[in-house]
Amino acid sequence: MTQLERPSASRRHLLAGVGAGLSLAAAGCLGDESASITPVSLDGERACDQCGMIVEDHPGPVGQLHFEDDEPEGGRPGQFCSSVCTYTYRFDAEDEGRTPLATFLTDYSLVDQEVFEEGSDTMFSSHVESEAFSRTTDLTVVARSEVIGSMGPDLIPFGDDGDVESFVEEYGGEPMSAEDVDRGTLEAL
């Protein structure tokens, strides 16, 4: 390598490093707003923003959405009685140009759920306390299991892979990243 080639290579590395640093800084700034968002409790007479059912009155996973600028009601997050309602509302909001900053679902790895039968349906208890939620970025959901939610077939979320495996062994279903859910996933339920 000649003396002239070294500065050129060093300059490319420097520019690449500066570019990467700026990209990370920008991502960090954008992520800071999202990172500071925490889930809220969905207890009381809170109605689902998708279907109108009272969130805490129904079994299964529940959810909440925090938007960049256009919260549904007086600065509170969107609140939902099921995973399906959460995703449906989110997809519709995104289609309208709104930007969700954080999506939270019940994390059945964090709670002691009760399993109960209602007729021929198997259901999990609902958990509306703020500590029961995890971000969808940290969750795996199980689709098409024997366990249903408040709106019927639902996506059952877990933060721990071992819990996912145990659930699938007992109740069947297909695990997938909660971030990979799309309208097609909901339609296939």
UniProtKB/TrEMBL annotation:
PROSITE patterns: PROKAR_LIPOPROTEIN (PS51257), TAT (PS51318). Pfam families: NosL. This is NosL. It comes from Halorubrum saccharovorum.
